[in-house]
C-alpha cells in the first residue's frame, strides 16, 4: 500500500533546517521521495498519482541528500523508501543522520560507500 501524501499548506516552502538531520542550513536541496527517473514506469504510475509523485519531497542538506543517493538506488528509493520514516528506518541512513546531527552547519563529510539495492 502506498504511503499517504497529504501535505499541509506551505509544505513546499523551504524550511530553515534539514528535514532528516535537523541541522540549520542555509542551502537546502529538494529530494523527491519518488525519484523523477521512475515517474514514467508503469509500476509507479499505478501506485501513485502524478500529484503525489511531484509533491512528495523533503528539503535536505547536501550531505544527507548525497548519502541517500550513495546508499540506495533510484528503484529502491521509489519502492521501499518513499517517506521520511522509511528513509530513517534504513540502518545506514539512520546511523549517518544521527552522526551528522551533532556536526556544525558547514560540515561536509565525504561518503564513498558502494550502493546497496
From TrEMBL:
<protein>
    <recommendedName>
        <fullName>HNH endonuclease</fullName>
    </recommendedName>
</protein>
